[in-house]
Amino acid sequence: MVLMKELKPNNMFSKIFSKKSAWVLVLLCVQVNAQSMIDFPIVSGTKQTSLHIDKNDAEVVQITAQMLIDDIHKVTDKKIRLGGTSKFRIIAGTLGKSKAIDNLVKQKKIDVSAIKGKWETYHIQVLENPSKDIEKALVIVGSDRRATAYGLLEISRKIGVSPWEWWADSAPVKKENVVLSIENKTYGSPSVKYRGLFLNDEDWGLQRWAALNFEPETGDIGPKTYAKVFELLLRLRANTIWPAMHKCTKAFYHYPKNKEVADAYAIVVGSSHAEPMLCNINAEWDHESMGEYRYDTNATSIKDLFRKRAKETQNYEGIYTVGMRGEHDSPMIVGEDNTGAQVDLLEQVITDQREILNRYSKKGVSKPQAFVPYKEVLHYYQSGLELPEDITLVWTDDNYGYIRQLSNPQEQTRSGGAGVYYHTSYWGRPHDYLWLNSTNPVLMWEEMSKAYGFKSRDLWILNCGDIKPHEYNIELFLDMAWNMGDFEKNNAVEVHHQQWATREFGKENAAAITKIMNDYYKLAFQRRPEFMGWSQVEPVTKAGKTELTQFHYGDEVMGRIKAYEALLIKVKGLQPRISKAQQDAFYELVYYPVAGASLLNQKWLYAYKNQFVADQGSKSTSYFANNSKEAFQTIQVETEYYNTKLKGGKWNHIMTMAPRHLPVFSQPSVSAVPESETASLGLALESYQMEVNNEVINSYADVLPVFNAYTKNTYYIDVFLKGKGTISWEAKPIADWIRISKISGKLNEDHPENRLWVTIDWDRVPKGENKKEAPLGHDYQLIPPSYKVNSAIGFVANGEKTTIGVSVFNPKFKALENYKGFVEDKGFVSMNAENFTRKKKGTEADWETFEGIGYSNKVCLALPRTAASHKNLSDIIANSPSLEYDFYTFNFGEANVNVQAIPTHAFYGGRGVRCALAIDDAEPVLVDFQTLGRSDEWKQNVLKNASVKSAKQIIDKAGKHTLKIWMVDPGVMLDQVLIDLGGWKDSYAFPPETKM
């Protein structure tokens, strides 16, 4: 009926058909569409359904068949039979391995032309009366063993079982009957051939949990744990594992059962950049018996280890990492300390490895090889290392989410193809992030989309640390690898998250959860929780001084506190709305990550507030200290609950609140102030580090920053208690156009501080002079008196009066009537990149706006990435796409144009990360965001997720101007712009936009 109501036949339609016949046609169309979906009862009343597989099919098919039976039982509390003579049957099998499937093909009852010979491709359809004893058959046919397994678990998805049913305790909604509407559909082949996870830095969770809780009989990550990991991979349609490899864990091949379990689950075993030939050097290299681990002097012993591993894995699927690095994720040791010698030796290593693999290759078992140009190995590759073209190039990110290099057009034709090794967890400099999943999913999508576009489609590996709490990003990563076609548009991640949240917690909660997680990732993008101590590692340094300002631009520290407190309130408010069955999953997937990030931020931010106000002698010093301590203690409580109470202790030892016991995870030191017997009122104003001092005549800290009529500023005044006792205060604006959020109050030890917000009622302020332009000088402080209106606020407490000056800049310029652009405020113009006035398309490219990333949560991205870079200024001006920003200044002279971009890297050699800019008709100036290696600039960029570059420009007069930004290289992502005429004070982020 909905379709009938919404359909409105047009005039031509009406002329050809009567209204009645038109609706008949509509109904016929609906009926035809409905016939493509056929209902099949999984569990329905008295109808008995059974599952049929061939006993000779692969072991993974037997395993996933039982998983499906168990999943049906979890949903319905009923078990379907494996085998039997029921009239409703699920028939699953692999082409050439299942007699029942092969017979259906022979009888032409199913068409397998779309899957035959394809990689991991499966087909699902319902057959009506396929034989005299079967009324309906739900047929699942796979092109290979994994495809059949994925097909069986597709039915689990359809009945409502989450891939995280065990790993995140996601309980399916109970149903008495399950009848599926099945579409005749082919799934696959996957976008990426090999897709999987790297279990890395397992010391702090996975290994301890396995050894002490889940698999104590092994005392390690062993076959029982890996079976559960492989089950998750199959549910997520993945096929590859890079096993745990730190010294705390014995090597994967130390336990013979591990490789057998991997083969049973049809999981391909690979190894990281530091583990050549599936060998775990950390755990398997014994210096006493094998000698030094260096190929130039001890190649024989090293090749013996390679041969041993190649021989014992010749009957199993594996991806062999070729090349070599040193021990413990370090560079390879060679006798000659020059790049040429290192390249030559590495080429010899690869030659020897390939000879070994050829010797121990079994017919029918593929032996794909991968080369991972990670850290110094990329330098060797860029320096001319010759790599056989059938080896897969596995490009890496810089450990912080930005891919360092991708295949150039020539490399994209290699028969071995390319892949990506990507991090959402990392141990190393400039700082670890091993606790929470803080990688923005939109950033991951953008980088992996870029990689896919440059033909990196053969191997995708995600370093997810301990799996928990990386659940969502793991699923997103593997869903992209399965079908990148679902992720072509920028809003794909939000759509995916909504679907994920709907599946896990119901449609009624999906939007709220998605909004909470979007806010969580936005805050983490500005600075990850693990980086809030402003310390670094390698070597480990003590906690440092925050770069967040506490007295400019509304107080960045308090702004971040409020944002995280609001996020925690939201997630706590949502918790009671989650069904009882899904409370554990909600805690693991949403609550603990959000609470952990919020509390760790509050712990440090309140400590920074404590240190700041201690210098003012404020009683709120102890208030902020207590808040910091309380946040630290609450993290302890929540983590203890996660480990010991959640799910009856199922996850005991999986979660630590202090990986590697770094300073950021400790309780910050706090300050105290000497006690004073006399209570008095303290005042601190925005823009001043020190408090108001009545004893200093004409103190510069007793005047608020100038209020600008064109930006409608808001500034704060902190009123705080000094000394013991209670004090009442009152604020009296002298002018009727001054507005204060609170005009009186009482301060005591429980409530030692109030923050007042001062605004202006602009309808009441007297206008300044009527001028066409503002003939002001270069110094933004030198505002002529004729443009300013001065007044004050009087504060009274204990009979003492303090006057705070208030000045407004309120001229009436004809040029600004109905003006919609940006304006100067306090000596700068601030703008978000996406809020351009105009944009102009280039001959090959254009600027597009992407949401969900950046400090403003939107960026401007130059696309397509395949567009040519521009070579010279005339080419840039004539052919490059541009963004234009209209702005108005009240001053003139030299200005620094600061452009903030997402710190991505050039796609490959010969490209940069460049744009060009100019104010008005000046000659464009090139700006390049590319960093080299692991420089100090790169370290600061990745800690901040921002790269800021500056270019000097001349503003020749006060008045209207236009900033133009041109693309030079595609792929540049612009975040924010700040034109500084000398007024910008220190701040972590650019000040808020100064827009009319």
Record the SSE blueprint:
Elements: H1 2-6, H2 11-16, H3 19-35, E1 37-43, E2 49-52, H4 59-76, E3 81-82, E4 88-94, H5 99-106, E5 122-131, E6 134-142, H6 145-158, E7 178-183, E8 185-187, E9 194-198, H7 206-214, H8 223-235, E10 240-242, H9 256-264, E11 268-269, H10 281-284, H11 287-290, H12 295-312, E12 320-321, H13 339-359, E13 369-371, H14 376-382, E14 392-396, E15 418-423, H15 441-453, E16 459-463, H16 471-482, H17 492-505, H18 507-526, H19 556-574, H20 583-614, H21 620-645, E17 680-685, E18 707-708, E19 715-722, E20 727-733, E21 738-740, E22 744-747, E23 753-760, E24 770-771, E25 788-797, E26 800-809, E27 812-813, E28 822-823, E29 828-832, E30 838-840, E31 846-851, E32 858-863, H22 873-879, E33 882-889, E34 893-901, E35 914-919, E36 925-928, H23 936-944, E37 947-955, E38 959-967, E39 973-980
Parallel strand pairs: 2-3, 2-4, 4-6, 9-10, 9-16, 10-11, 12-13, 13-14, 14-15, 15-16, 18-26, 24-27, 28-33
Antiparallel strand pairs: 1-7, 5-6, 5-8, 17-19, 19-23, 20-22, 20-25, 21-23, 25-26, 29-39, 30-33, 31-32, 32-39, 33-38, 34-37, 34-39, 35-36, 35-38
Helix pairs in contact: 4-6, 8-9, 12-13, 15-16, 17-18, 18-19, 19-20, 20-21
Q: Structural class of the helices, strands and pairings?
A: alpha/beta
- What top-tier CATH class of the largest domain fits best? Alpha Beta
Helix content: 25-40%
CATH H-level superfamily title of the largest domain: Glycosyl hydrolase family 115
Secondary structure tally, helices: 23
CATH architectural type of the largest domain: Alpha-Beta Barrel
Summarize the main sheet. 8 strands, parallel
Apparent shape = globular
Strand order of the largest sheet: 11-10-9-16-15-14-13-12
What distance separates the N and C termini? 49 Å
Low-confidence stretches: 1-35, 771-782
In terms of DSSP E residues, the strand content is 15-25%
Q: C-alpha Rg, in Å?
A: 32 Å
